Amino acid sequence: MEKTTIQVSSDTLERLKMFKQHERDSYDVTLNILLDETEEDVLSEEEIEDIKIALEEVKRGEVYPIEDVARELGVKLE
Questions:
Q1: Domain range list for the chain
Q2: For residue 1, pLDDT beyond 80
Q3: pLDDT in tens, 17-71
Q4: Distance from first CA to last CA of the chain, Å, rounded?
Q5: What is this structure's pTM?
Q6: Half-sphere exposure of residue 9, counting CA atoms within 13 Å on the CB side?
Q7: Which of 15, 29, 52, 70 could, after both became Cys, cross-link 75 (CB 3.0–4.6 A)?
Q8: CB 30 within 8 A of CB 16
Q9: How far is CA 27 from CA 3, 15, 56, in A?
Q10: With contact defined as beta carbons under 8 Å apart, do 16 and 7 qualify?
C-alpha cells in the first residue's frame, strides 16, 4: 500500500485521537472506520423517495394505530 502524508491542524489531530477504537490503531484505520460509517449513513435516492411517499401517506391519514399493527403481527406491546 502506498502511503502519503496529510496535513491536519493539532485540533484535528486531537479529535482524531478521540475516535480511535484502540490506542494502537493507526490513523489510517481510524479514518477508514469513520468514512465507512459516514457512507452507511447516506440515503439512496430510492430510500429518499420511499420516505417522501410514506410522509405523503401520513399526511393523507393512511396510517394504522400501533395497537392494530401489533395485534395483527401477534406482538405484545408493553
A1: 10-40, 43-78
A2: no
A3: 999 999 999 999 999 999 998 887 788 899 999 999 999 999 999 999 999 999 9
A4: 53
A5: 0.52
A6: 3
A7: 70
A8: yes
A9: 12, 11, 44
A10: no
